[in-house]
Structures are given as structure tokens and as C-alpha cells.
Amino acid sequence: MCKRLSQIAVVLCGMSTPVFAQTPEPPINAEAMLTALHAIRDKQTDTVKTQRHKLIQEFQTRAANPAAALDFYEAAVKATQFEGENRAQTQFVEWKKKDAVHLKSRDFQNGLRLHLNYLVLTLQRASGVETKALLPGLTSHLQQVRIEQDAGNQDHILKGKIDDSIFVRWYGIGGLIGGMENWEMSPGNMDGIYQKTIQPELRKQKDPRIVEYWDSKIQREASQATKSSLAFDAGKFDQVRKPSLLWNRAEDVLSIGQKNRAATDMFALVKGYPTHPEAAKWVARLEEVLTYSGAKDATAPPAAPAQ
After folding, report:
1. Least buried of 36, 69, 78, 305, by fewest C-beta within 10 Å?
2. 69-82 residue pLDDT tens
3. 51-88 burial, b if ≥16 CB within 10 A, otherwise e?
């Protein structure tokens, strides 16, 4: 009896586990699928390029003059801060009245225009335009920023980060400019724009204009030190800051292949400022320049030049 029950249990267990027969997969045309896939990819790429081109044109138009830039800014504020709110239009009008003085100020409107202008340059670089092609625009931007800074413009719209721009948030384009390398994100950071983007390109091209930045920087800082009411500031500039800037200038002269001129300038600094805080480092660097037989390493710029 027990043997019979065991046989029945085995049969039942076998019946409870269904066995499915594998059906053969239908064939695919891999070559045709890849062709279609590449067409989709190319269409996506073209669509992104078209969208970026339209964005660039839009921002260029808005940056053309302060009035257009201000209208664009007000529209961005309304869309990002008041849209969907109860009494949205009333609140927006109240905001405009409250901030009227600031919105109409020269500093804000000029800073806003430069903010948009730099956003255009940033989008162009993000879209693949080479730095070499952007040099004229970047140089012009720096010249305008210098004028604003000399006039005392400290508005946040000029100093803030492009990737946190109200226009970037409004258009949802943070992904287009996020993670950019060798690119300064603040439209008003002259040193950052020059040292991250312009300086490396000028070095690559062996462009003698590379020293113009240092000449201008020395002139600006000398003027600031002279205007200071503290005699200490002027003395510190002459004895510490200015020699450091001149050394960086000499390093850039070296980077474009003018070794003899650079060595002469470096030697004059070592000799003229023997007690400078960086004197020991200068001596070691100049010794390297004078003794190294090859041009590649000797003309390499320092890893982190003083700003």
C-alpha cells in the first residue's frame, strides 16, 4: 500500500512541473536595424544642433542692447518666480516697482548685457566651436568687463555664475553647459576667463599677445595701489605683488618660445628682488631654464601661476 502511494506521489509531482518547449526566435535584419538606428541618432544630433543655434540667436538678439536685455530679464523673472501664483500679475508688477531703481541702473543693465553675451559664448563653446574661433569674442568681452570694473560695477548679475543663470533655469538648458572643462562660469571673472581659456590657447599658438594680459593687470593693480590711502599697500605692491606678476609674464614669454628674452627678464627679477618670498623658487626655475638643453620642458608654463 505504501509503495503504491509513493508511485502516485511521483506521478503527481511530475504533472505539477510543466515543461515548455522553446520556440525559435524570428530572424532580424541587423544591418537594416543599424541603418535605421544611425538615422535616428543623426536626427537627434541635428535636432540638438538646431535647438542650440536658435538659443544662441535668441540670446544674441537679447544682448544687443540694454533695453532688450532688460525686457528679457523681466520675462524670465515673471516665468520663473511668479508663474502659477495667485495674483501673479499683481505680484510681478509690485516686484518691478520695488526693484525699479536697480533695474534701471547703469550697472545692472550693462552687467545684464554682458551676462547674456557670455552665455552666448558659453553655448557656442558647448556646441563644439573651437576656442581659437572664440578668441575675438572672448577678448572683446574682457575689454567690456574691464570698462565696467574700472567704473566700479559690482552688480551680482555680472559676478554670478552662468550655470545658475535665471535664463538657464528658465530655458532648462543646464545640461547643455554643465561640466564644461577649461571654461570660467562667471562672466565678470577676468582672471578666470583669461587663465582657463584664453591663455592656454595663446600659448598653443605661440601668440605674442599673451603678455598683454599681464601688462594690463600690472597697470590696473598699480593704479589701485596708488589710489589706496595706505602707504603700506603701495609699498607691498612694488616689492611683492608686482615682481610676482612680472615673473608670471616672463613665464608666458617663455611659453611662446622666446627663451632668451624670458631668461633675461627672470634674471633681472632674481637680482632685483633677492628677498622676495618666492625668490628661492625663482632661482630654481631659472636654473632649470638655463641648463635644460631641450625646448619642450624648459618652455613649459608653471603648473599654477599666481593670479
Report:
1. 36
2. 999 999 999 999 99
3. ebeebbeebeebbeebeebbebbeebbbeeebeeeeee
